[in-house]
Each structure stands twice: as structure tokens, then as C-alpha cells.
Automatic annotation (TrEMBL):
It holds the Pfam family Dioxygenase_N. This is Catechol 1,2-dioxygenase. It comes from Mobilicoccus caccae. Its cofactor is Fe(3+). It comes from the Bacteria. Keywords: Dioxygenase, Iron, Metal-binding, Oxidoreductase. PROSITE patterns: INTRADIOL_DIOXYGENAS. InterPro entries: 1_2-CTD_multi_dom, Catechol_dOase_N, Cchol_dOase_actb, Intradiol_dOase_C, Intradiol_dOase_core, Intradiol_RC_Dioxygenase. The lineage of its organism: Bacteria, Bacillati, Actinomycetota, Actinomycetes, Micrococcales. Residues 97-125 form the Intradiol ring-cleavage dioxygenases domain.
Amino acid sequence: MATEALEAIHEVARRHKMTYDEYRILKDWLISVGEDGEWPLFLDVWLEHVIEDINTSHRTGNKGTIEGPYYVPDAPEMGSHAKISMREDEKGESLRFQGQVRSTDGTPLGGAKVELWHADADGFYSQYAPGLPEWNLRGTFTADEEGRFQIDTLLPAPYQIPTDGACGKLIAAAGWHAWRPAHLHLKVGSQGHEQLTAQLYFPGDPHNEDDIASAVKPELVLDPKTVDGIDGKVVDYDFVLDPL
Ligand code: MBD
Ligand code: FE
């Protein structure tokens, strides 16, 4: 693969008759990606969606999508029906996210682990921005005997990937935009099943159609509702996992 990847770059350089000026700009930019600590961001925004597609296309259970750069394993265990950890004055509309985890044959997967993480209203992920509690808006939930879970969190806000570093320079130079649609990140796992990595999106978000990370699929768009007597929005979403 290394040989072919290099040949693909050689081919682009030849086709565009890359000058020495362009070569130096490319070299400096590649160095700056590392200096800015943005290799995880770069790879997950512009390559991971292809890897995800290749490696999950055999599944008959739920569609997933990319993990992205901000997953942290071992978030605190909260139970099956619980509120995610957040600050007293955390900004955002309430969202109750509930559903069931099943195997492809319909068997409920009691004890399945549902890991949830998302950005705060300002677009920051805990452990990747200063001043946030360690596990803010991150949690591990365990489905009950029927495979059910109910998580109280907040509606995530539209999200811009960082624009102050090397990836932002690339976006500006190419004339792209830096937006991702508002999203929840999830990992769902159960004994004897393939772990599902997913993101869930919200209807009407303008960036569902032009996500900079190419990670939206129609099956991943939620349908939140207003329910009498419950503050904010409620959404039902089930996870079907493929047996190993
Ligand atoms: C994110 O929050 C994200 O989910 C991805 C895939 C890339 C950058 C920031
Ligand atoms: Fe994200």
C-alpha cells in the first residue's frame, strides 16, 4: 500500500506540474500538521470515512460512522436510566435519548454498553479543551435486562472543526467550510457482537448534506419529538448489533 499511495501522489504532482514553490508549501504544511497536533483531526476528517465504509459494509445491523478524534475510553459507568455528567449551568436544550439494543435476530442484549460523548454548546469536548470537568458530557450506560437504556443529555450544537491550525489553513486555501452537523457520538457493544461506532444527527441541520467529515448517512438522522410533561426533546433510537 505504501508504494501505491506514493505513486498516487507522484501522479498528482506530475499531472499538475507541481513547482518547487508548491513543493515547499506542501512540505511546510505537512510539518505544521504535526506541530499543531492535528494529525488525528486531519485523518479522521478526510480519511476515516472510507476506512469505516470498507470495514462495516458486511453488516446487516445498524449503520455506523466514524469515531472522530475525541473518543476517550472508560467514561464513568452511569447505569441504564441516567443523566450524563454535566455542569450545573450547562447550556443547551434537554434531550432524552432512549432505546433498545438487540442482536440481528431480535434478541434483546441486556447488559450492552452504550458509550455516549458529545461537544458542549461552545463546541468543546472534555479532555480536549481547558477548564472542563474531566468527564463532562461523556458517560458509559449499561442496558437493562431488556436491552433498554434512557439517557438524559442536551441537544448538541452545530460544530465547527478547529480553524486556527493546519487543518483550518487547508480548508481556507481550498475554499471549503469547517462545519459538521450537530452530532452525538456513540459506541455500542455487547458480548459476542461487533462493536458499533456511530454518530447521530438531527433533521434540518444545513450541514447534514455537506459535512466536512463526510460522516452523515440517512439512517443516522434522528427524529426527536416533544412529549407532554417532559422538558426539551425526546428521541427513540434502537441499536441492532451484528453477531461476531
Ligand atoms: C469532531 O467532533 C468530529 O466528530 C470529527 C469526526 C472531526 C472533528 C471533530
Ligand atoms: Fe464530534
